[in-house]
Each structure stands twice: as C-alpha cells, then as structure tokens.
Amino acid sequence: MTKLIDRRMGFFLIALFIAVVAIPVGNLAIEGKPVASYVVQLSGKYLCYALLAVALDLVWGYCGILSLGHGAFFALGGYAMGMHLMREIGTRGVYGDPVLPDFMVFLSYEQLPWFWLGFDQFWFAALMCMLVPGALAFVFGWFAFRSRVSGVYLSIITQAMTYALMLSFFRNEMGFGGNNGLTDFKDVLGFDLQSDATRAGLFIASAVALVAGLMIAKAIALSQLGKVLIGIRDAESRTRFLGYRVEGYKLFVFVVSAMMAGVAGALYTPQVGIINPGEFSPANSIEIVIWVALGGRGTLVGAAIGAIFVALAKTLLTGWIPEMWLFALGGLFVFVTLFMPRGVLGVIEESWAKLRRTEPVKEVTP
Predict the structure, then answer these.
(1) Looking at residue 33, what DSSP letter applies?
(2) Distances from the Cα of 227 to the Cαs of 60, 222, 233, 235, in angstroms?
(3) Which residue spans within the chain are E strands per DSSP?
(4) Which tens digits make up the pLDDT trace of 31-49?
(5) Higher pLDDT, residue 319 or 26
(6) What is the spatial distance between Cα 109 and Cα 130, in angstroms, rounded to a whole number?
(7) Residue 2: is it exposed, middle or buried by C-beta count within 10 angstroms (0-12/13-18/19+)?
(8) What is the DSSP letter of 297?
(9) Where in the chain are the domains?
(10) What φ, ψ does residue 162 adopt, rounded to 5°?
(11) Which of 38, 101, 183, 311 is least surrounded by Cβ atoms within 10 Å, i.e. has the fewest?
C-alpha cells in the first residue's frame, strides 16, 4: 500500500478527503448552506471526469495508446445506468406505463426491446456499465492490435468508432431515445435524485470510485505488467523481439481502461440528469486528451487534476464568454504541447527540485 501512495498521490488524496468532508457538510450540516446544491452536483461531475482522465492516462501515459474513443466508453456506461434509471420511473412517467419508458410509448413501441431486459435490477445495470464498454474495447482491440495498428492510425479509427456510435444512437430505431437521449430520472436505489442528501451521496461515491481507479491504475503501473507496458510505449518492436506478446498486454490494459471509463459514465448520468448521443461526440474524446496532457501524461494524479481544472474553467468561461471557450481550449493545448510537455504536475515537480538544489547549505558550527 505504501508503494501505491507516493508523495504526489498522498497530497492528492488528502486534498480529495478534505473536499469529500467539507462539501457535503457545508451543504447539509451547516445552517445557511454555504455550499450550494449546484456546487455539490458540479463537484461530483468533475470527479467523474477525473476518473475518465485517469482511465485514458493508463493507456496513453503508460502504454502509448492515444485513444480518441474513450468518450464512447464513458457514454456507454452512462447509457447503461440511464436505462436502469428509466426503468425505475415506472408509472410516474408522463404516459404512466409501468414497463415502457415515455419515449417508447410516444414512438408506439408495443413491447420492451430485448436489450432493455434486466435493467430494472440495479446490480445488472451496474455490471453492464463495465461489461458493455469492456466488451466493445475487447472486440475493437482484438482486431486492431492483432493487425498491429498503432500510432495516429489507431487514434483515427478509435475516433471513427466514436463517431459511428454517435450517429447510431441519434436514430430512434436504436431504442435509446434518439436525439433526446434518456432523461427525467426520478430516483436511484429508492433515493430521490433531487434530494441534497442523494447528491452528496453520489458525490462521495464518485470520490470513492476515483480513489479506486487511481489505486488500480497505480498497481498496474508498478507491477511487472506495468514495466512491460512502459517498454511497449517506448520501444514496441524491441519488446516484441524480447518475446513478449505485445498484443495481449495492450488488449488487457485497453479493456481495463474502458471499464473504468464506463464506471465514470455510470456515476455521471444520475448527477447531471441526462445522457444523450452528444456524449459520443469526437470533440469530447479530444477534450479528454487535453485534460491528460495538461495535468501530466503518465502521472495519473496529474490527469485527474487536469480534468478538474479544465472542467472548472469550462464552467466559468462558458458562463462569462461562451464564444471564447473553444479558442481558449485550443490555445491551452498548443501552449501545453510547446512549453509544458510534462504537464502542469511535471513543471511543479521540476521547479520544486530546482528550488531544493539551489537552497544554500547551512554551515554547522563546531
């Protein structure tokens, strides 16, 4: 355990623990609510983004797989949870149908599609949040990695996969709500989603999932498997020449990363109250790459910090000057690429190391 929690991880976990205690207490236990309900909701959403960034950093920072399809895994996890939340509505929907969601009644569905069966059970939905993204990653990775597709070509086809899924989910015939997606959720596990206590619980659950994701990713990075992954990242041909089945290692870490992204999406959906095909947008996957690059590729903690920072900046700038956000995001990516290749966390650690080296040596008087 001590190997998993190094100095940077320790500082981040301490800050996260303080936030997990302070934000719910400020919203629920202190009179006057110094922490507004929307702050709790936004904070939970940011932690989901942080987990998503950690998932991408695991494959990009440690294995060199620049995936532009992690937005798809995130969205699939979100849809799996959204399907459960829609089944939970029951007769409280607009049309009052005990089985069919409102959009299916509106579109004249006569019965529930087979792929919606089982989603009335939370355990089944929670399992699907991981298995569906993991299965897609396995099938995609099996063909891509065995064909030795890598580099920019792999990035392009992962982006094409995301775009194809987005177009598919926009169609009403798919049975996922079409353009409007899934929304109007009422509760989760019997708890009202509009309740402050439920929002605080989801925020804490997101923090726990983020810590678990960081620990899993760190354990992989420090293991013998992690050393092989770094070898693949730095010299794939040499690693293959040494006798390692590179395809198997890449496939494993790609599937694990996709499942982590699915969990992030599952926690994201009940907190924002909607999941629609826009989450598959290739622009979202590109933004995830910017989070990781800004925080520091191959640091895990830096990826989480970068996601929180960019998400917070997006919330503020789109409220003040919405037309400038995309220019600011593009400029930030260019700046980081040119002047901070190791990300913000790398710059901070380098500056701290230089400061310690330049400290004057104290003379010891006899």
Answers:
(1) -
(2) 14, 7, 10, 12
(3) 182-183, 187-188, 191-192, 274-275
(4) 888 999 999 999 999 999 9
(5) 26
(6) 28
(7) exposed
(8) T
(9) 7-308
(10) -65, -45
(11) 38
